[in-house]
Design goal:
Blueprint (H helix, E strand, L loop, with lengths): L1 E7 L4 H12 L4 E7 L4 E6 L5 H9 L4 E5 L1
Antiparallel strand pairs: 1-3, 1-4, 2-3
């Protein structure tokens, strides 16, 4: 299962690394691919996870999640 997050506020590769780390620290996330250019993150999940959990993980690092598909 995959989910795509629209992430606002990333300005550099360090931001990309923060978002990737925040998502991959979650037990339900198998992997995360984060794009600075697309301002998005695609997560591959081991199991279903509430959108709010993904959103909170990213927003704890100071970025804004505008949508999850």
């Amino acid at each position: 299962m995959k989910k795509t997050l629209s992430v606002f506020g990333m300005t550099c590769n360090k931001c990309v690394a923060h978002v990737k780390m925040a998502l991959e620290e979650l037990e339900q996330v198998k992997s995360a691919e984060v794009s600075l250019q697309e301002q998005s993150a695609v997560v591959e999940l081991n199991e279903d996870v509430a959108d709010e959990v993904l959103k909170n993980a990213v927003e704890e690092f100071g970025y804004e999640v505008r949508a999850i598909k």
